[in-house]
Amino acid sequence: MSTSSQFNERPQPLVTAALSAGALVLGIPVAAAALVFEKTDMPNPVLGTKEIKTAPGETATITFNLLSGPQDAVMAGGYISIIASILLVAGIVISRHVSRHNIWGWAVIGPALLDLLGQIGILAYVNIVKSQNPEAKSADEVTFANGKYDTQGKLYTREAWACMMDKFYPDRETWAEKACSDLKIGALMPIPLAICGAAMVGLASFMIWRRGGFGWLIGRRKNVLAYSNQKTGDYIDLQPTD
């Protein structure tokens, strides 16, 4: 396809609808599932306390609860995916039907790239925190006495705690089985979120290619500059200025 025909091609509403639907399918269902699994209700026990000096002769007690960082990160990834897909749809519609200025190309590729990078970072973070705070191997490491649990100073993630309670104290902690299952699935959600993020980048790249490729995105091509007529929306090919 020549540059002129590619630039002057009239966008088809059905194609726009299909591209938009694809972006929403990639960005929302998996993200919604991640949010559902990570919003599991469970107790948040105090695992330890520490006194610190706040002023001469004064102290304050800091309490340590379950580590929620991995779950918070996965939920953030879900919200990022949803927002990125909505922005991608807006960019697709505007770049195809409202304005062919290359700034809208960045509105298409930008959210998709940020989403993919964010999901990769979240996936790495979740696995690092989980590896640094693994589940206890036996009930001797988490004992129950006087109405509370003693972890011997160790901290655990919400997922690890739920699965430990299901393994060591299932009769007392009846909530733990479902919570453990949900949180284990939730901890895996960054993988499909990253895959969907990569697919959104592919979709955005396709849009950029249809508009004129990377040359159009940065404002010029190897042999021509694309100039948009603001009145008609048509493109006129100009020779390079240098």
UniProtKB/TrEMBL annotation:
Keywords associated with the record: Membrane, Transmembrane, Transmembrane helix
Superkingdom of origin: Eukaryota
Native source species: Aaosphaeria arxii CBS 175.79
Residues passing through the membrane, by range: 73-94, 106-128, 191-209
Name by which UniProt lists this protein: Uncharacterized protein
